């Protein structure tokens, strides 16, 4: 199973007899134990069989903990699927496997407010990031802008200039330029308290502070008031754009030194993109790390970043390259792979479809548009051609992700259904990444048991929903009037048939 060089490295690390070890067993053997270990996809210790994460369902707001199928194994996705059947589910807690209780929960407001009514960040959908590990289904944490997790009082994290390491496995195709999709060490008060108060992994193509080679995305270090690709350079050409579907990103720091490393999480070995001195700008040497843990946000709760998190750990001490290399071998052996993003009745690219509402009293209405506005209208075989065309959509391969779909207006070629501030509208494709992502939807089996529910790819908590006969990308029980939980499943389920035109 393991190649000879890996066995030799394991031998050198004193790991023989433990070659089936999880990432945190490897860090322990290397003398730099995990002080936090987070994953919704698998156990990160060979012996771990406790809860990996908690989900909460929309139907009754009850929760269920999801554990690995066996000690050291992959998360029990079937347990989540049965609990979440016929409703929506959010990830409420990502448990710490280290035994220190350093769990991640919904992030509170700070320098920036989150989108919830109380200023907290959103929780992630439990179903936005399905994958397989060694062929077994599991779910990652799909972070849309506005989503974030935090722990402001963990035990054992690095403070001040103390040494630490961290890695995470991410989706290298899900990123943006917003601030800041991070995982790692941050402020304990959710505010920007100054240079050197953070040491976290950043992933995305933000260029406000630093950048690497090409157009991104890059692995950088968020050290507060700066995303660093190298020592001081705004552009470290040694920090490559890295967009494998699965990316391993690692950052580590100790007095006078820090490093960035990265790899394809599905094959190969880690490369070092920077290893050297601390930035010379004031505040970064020595560091003033505060020791909170963030996921999906900046230190001051900046909530504009997006990305997908599968697993990550933080260590006590500066891990050796050899230890990290052995962890990378373990990640590769976990065999992360993609799986279908859709379920329910199938869609055929190129076909014309209609979407019929299923809410009692509204089920003669179809998703249609009047100019840019998306609404529902009563349509039948005897309707005028104009109306028939307004209620017909051509299925296209997803503009933002070809595993999902886009819906082109039948009467306005080149224009597609997209969401904008969570309102559905028909807009012409401006070619931007934002447009393509806002116009990409992943159909799943209908939440009320009929037809399909149409999930927004970039906001998997949001579904096509009619409310007062207007079309929205609505979140079950969210802050908008149109998010109202009453009749959500019915309003968000559509029978998909051949288009009228
Ligand atoms: O360092 C980049 C960002 O700057 C931090 O994440 C945030 O706290 C500040 O806005
Ligand atoms: O619809 C939600 C977001 O609102 C879209 O992703 C963005 O384009 C707009 O700001
Ligand atoms: O869109 C019609 C109705 O408007 C929805 O069923 C209901 O949720 C809202 O009041």
Automatic annotation (TrEMBL):
Its EC number is 3.2.1.55. It comes from the Eukaryota. Pfam families: AbfB (PF05270), ArabFuran-catal (PF09206). The keyword Transferase does not apply. GO terms for biological process: arabinan catabolic process; L-arabinose metabolic process; pectin catabolic process; xylan catabolic process. Keywords: Carbohydrate metabolism, Disulfide bond, Glycoprotein, Glycosidase, Hydrolase, Polysaccharide degradation, Secreted, Signal, Xylan degradation. Pathway: Glycan metabolism; L-arabinan degradation. It is found in: Secreted. Disulfide bonds join 24-34, 84-89, 179-180, 404-442. Residues 1-21 form the signal peptide. GO terms for cellular component: extracellular region. Residues 23-337 form the Alpha-L-arabinofuranosidase B catalytic domain. This is Alpha-L-arabinofuranosidase.
